[in-house]
Amino acid sequence: MHTNRVQKFGLFLGAAGFSIFVLAWTGVITGAHTLFLWLSFSLMAAGILINTYGLYGGHTRGIKNNHVWFNTLTGRGLLGWVSGIVLTLFYIQLYWFADSLSGLISMFDPLSYLLTGGKASQWFLYGTVYTFLIFFLGIKFIYKYRHNRYQVIRTISVIIFQVLFAYAIPHILEAFNDYQGYFGKDLKQIWPLNYYITESYQLDAMSQNGVSGTFYFFWGLILFLIVTPVFTYFYGKRWYCSWVCGCGGLAETAGDSFRQLSSKTRSSWQIERWVVHSVMVFVLLMTVASLWPYFSGKDYKLSFITITTPMFFYSMIFLLVLSAIGGGLLYWKRRHPLLLVGTIILLLIAGALSFGYFGGVKDIFSVNSRSIKKVYGFLVGSAFAGVIGVGFYPLLGNRVWCRFGCPMAGYMGIIQRFKSKFRITTNGAQCISCGNCSTYCEQGIDVRAYAQKGENIVRASCVGCGVCSAVCPRGVLKLENGPEEGRFDSNPLLITKDGVKLNS
Ligand code: SF4
Ligand code: SF4
């Protein structure tokens, strides 16, 4: 692929900025941190912006994905593999060998002192780089998709949520407050994506921090119990996955060049369903298993309410049984095995909790909750979400975590699939079967197969990124929120190469 001079200049600046990171990482740079930090970020920012202009400026309207399969980075070539390996090694260091990053971490001290009043940690380094990438590669994304209003607005939204709610506000709050639980780190995190809320030290922090601690406690509950189901019912899971979430934000911006690498095979769809729902069940079991020993046999005091053991027990039973009834009713209507399995699991958990309450047992699943958390934290929280989820962007596509691992996506996916107004409608008669939509679906959905049949796309995994619609040359696909009636009904007419048939 031809790289023009503007692009080359941008790449040169970006590489120069990144090399400062490498020099700090390897211990060559040990002082003048403020200078080097700003120099590296400025060079990388300028590099991204100039490269973006060289790549997409001066072209005709429309989204350009030319040569993605022939590019060594985006077509799983040598550079793709090298990048995947380097990213993976970085994540391994970040999670398990943070000491080896100490040179790079100290380069972030000046910024950390400015924002939080303390020294930088590996998570401050990570959060800063993460936010930087979403911001500047978000600008690149907006410029690339500038002719599509939906893409522009949702990307601005993702940038604002990351910069303000996940980065600036929590860090500034940290400078003024004692540690107040996990919301002190990211106000838009929601259980089950962020399972840390079940940690006893997080609950202790909320209990010990008066009104603000109480606010964080109820903020978490409201996000999970009210905001998530209501918004997903009205808008599908896109409201979070494509407009708010930081993982989704990084996937859409830094990972945009790799979206075509997601597997579209039927077997990967099957693996996806098994894995994502297993992770969900795992989180639910882990949460109940760790909350019960914490709340049983003692009162939990917040600033204007005390949660006693019976209060906790009956609230949990109410939620579990209510969800099971909802699942059962939906199963009655849709006859989908997933709903039946989910309903049974919820009832079994309610039974185990009752056994714990009436039998005075703390480890209700006969497993120590700490060991379950350790396994989950290692396998899912670190290895899956970080190492594979981002490290494998250049190899498996940009939404590996969202598609196969994220329990929040699993939770919203069930609502989106069975009780939501969201769907992608298809005007099959206009489809020319070019396959652009399927190619660029980061969730591995074979969009074209639906479009050819004129069938609505109602899939649990769709994150509503809208890229299938944006790249369609015929305007076939439309993301819509409408009445539930007729949402699953296929187009009565099937348009095939042999003519129009009744879709029986
Ligand atoms: S089907 Fe379309 S909107 Fe849904 S995830 Fe795929 S590309 Fe995005
Ligand atoms: S991009 Fe549009 S025209 Fe091409 S296969 Fe998909 S729906 Fe059909």
How does this model look, in words?
The chain is mostly helical and 504 residues long. It has three domains: 1-59 and 97-176, no CATH class; 180-418, no CATH class; 421-502, Alpha-Beta Plaits. It has 21 helices and six strands. The chain has a two-stranded antiparallel sheet with strand order 1-2. The relative contact order is 0.10. The structure holds iron/sulfur cluster (SF4) (2 copies). One iron/sulfur cluster binds at residues 424, 441-443, 445, 447, 457, 462-468.
Major β-sheet strand ordering: 1-2
For the record, the count of structural domains works out to: 3
Number of helices: 21
- What fraction of the residues are assigned to beta strands by DSSP? under 5%
Identify low-pLDDT runs: none
Q: Roughly how many Å apart are the termini?
A: 46 Å
Total DSSP E strands: 6
What's the mean pLDDT score?
89
Bound molecules: iron/sulfur cluster
**Approximate helicity band:** 55-70%
Shape: globular
